Write the structure tokens for this entry.
Amino acid sequence: MTLEQKKEIVGQKIAVWFSCGAASAVAARETIRLYGARNSVRVLNNPVMEEGWDNRRFLADVEEWIGRKIETVTHPKWPMASAAAVWEKKRYMAGVRGAPCTALLKKEARQKWEAENPCDWHVLGFHAGESRRHRNFTITERANVLPVLIDAGFTKERCAQILVDAGIRLPEAYALGLPNANCIGCVKATSPTYWNLIRQVAPDVFHARCEQSRRIGARLVEVRKERIFLDELSPDVMGGPLKAIQMPECGIFCEERETAEITQ
């Protein structure tokens, strides 16, 4: 989209999907700055019960920063937005079919909201390091996405710095060394490095995942190319290092093909 085409966005409806991550927070701020005066901009969030415990504080801080209420969007059949409840009901946690929590609590929740709230444009937290991801998304999912961070040249690191400079403390998940501010104990992760970090920083979550995955029969972790149960993972086993800043967030349009990225 050219600069002239963007100037013609007037009197339209723009949905900004905020995932409680640094990039989507800055994307919300930039969208309001660029388009808020002449368009209807709504900032939306899909809460998940198992996400980072500091995310609600961060969301409230971002609301104050952008001067807008961040609306909650949940699936009508899953009002508590519990990923663990979805796994229990579906008897499936993650695998070649992706994760049912993503399909129901993110994608279907968004689609049901869209059915009642048609929008002209969507904004996601695609940052300057995710141009390829944004391009693929516009081809496979939808074309009406405004790449506000990519156009501004904002990397994820730059987004984090903008928030720090504004006096907003990032979600605690980042300080703990987790790759993003998504669910603590994301079942799409297969890295032993990730799971042993969860064992250290959130032992109650780790043991809950061990119990539920064993009961359901889900082998969540991969060690030397073999999938094993989480309760079989030795605390001493490590995979590749986690890339906290470079890894994508599990946003509203979390695609199954990102599973490989989240586990490296």
